[in-house]
């Protein structure tokens, strides 16, 4: 094949990346929320019997991050070559920062396994990074994706409206409402299923 015309084609498995990411991230968030109390119970010690949940969540997060990168690639492949440079820059930047802050939050949460009694600073820092920074970058990512999908017509209108709603929830109320971060993997699951069905057709 002529090297000037050769190109890599998106692996079929990339279509399932959003589903994998959604399941892994949701599992990590649920495990962390159950094992490490927040809000009124933020000063309570982590039950030694629940530390397995923290360890499992910390093992899951890197794989969730890998799946998220594949998900970003699948989204770009679905959009095609007509993507707008401005929105694609916002899309990529917010996606990378979101993934990075997820790793930082997981690292901070890991302090409950290394300190006895667990550090309140590590616990509070983990939730601050997750709810205030990571989820707000996720909001920008969701809004950019939905805007691209609407402008180019590559997503149906209900999906773009759902993305706008999810982005606003994460942006406005995410840091003040525990468990609200689960709307991000829920959105990724819906989008992942749509992309997978589209590729299969």
Descriptive labels:
201 residues
Gist?
The chain is mainly alpha-helical and 201 residues long.
Word description of this protein:
It is a single chain. With 201 residues, this protein is an all-alpha fold. The protein contains 7 helices and no strands. It is globular and about 50 Å long. It starts with 16 loop residues before the first helix and ends with a helix.
Q: How are the secondary structure elements laid out?
A:
Blueprint: H1 17-35, H2 51-79, H3 85-109, H4 111-114, H5 120-152, H6 157-172, H7 183-200
Order of helices and strands: HHHHHHH
* Helix-strand category: mainly alpha
Overall body shape: globular
User: Whole-number average pLDDT?
Assistant: 81
Radius of gyration: 18 Å
Contiguous helical run count: 7
Largest beta-sheet characterization:
none
The residue ranges in which pLDDT falls below 50 over 5 or more consecutive positions are 1-8
Give the strand content: under 5%
What percentage of residues falls in helices of 4 or more residues? over 70%
**Span between N and C termini?**
27 Å
Number of strand elements: 0
């Amino acid at each position: 094949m002529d090297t000037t015309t050769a190109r890599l084609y998106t692996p079929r498995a990339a279509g399932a990346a959003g589903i994998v990411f959604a399941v892994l991230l949701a599992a990590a968030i649920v495990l962390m929320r159950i094992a490490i109390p927040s809000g009124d119970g933020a000063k309570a010690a982590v039950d030694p019997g629940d530390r397995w949940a923290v360890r499992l969540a910390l093992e899951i997060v890197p794989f969730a991050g890998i799946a998220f990168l594949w998900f970003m690639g699948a989204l770009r492949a679905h959009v095609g070559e007509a993507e707008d440079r401005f929105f694609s820059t916002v899309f990529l930047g917010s996606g990378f920062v979101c993934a990075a802050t997820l790793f930082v939050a997981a690292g901070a949460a890991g302090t409950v396994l290394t300190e006895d009694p667990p550090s309140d600073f590590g616990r509070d820092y983990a939730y601050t990074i997750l709810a205030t920074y990571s989820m707000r970058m996720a909001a920008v990512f969701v809004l950019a994706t939905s805007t691209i999908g609407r402008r180019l017509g590559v997503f149906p209108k209900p999906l773009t409206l759902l993305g706008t709603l999810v982005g606003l929830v994460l942006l406005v109320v995410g840091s003040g409402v525990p468990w609200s971060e689960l709307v991000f993997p829920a959105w990724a699951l819906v989008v992942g299923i749509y992309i997978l069905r589209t590729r299969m057709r």
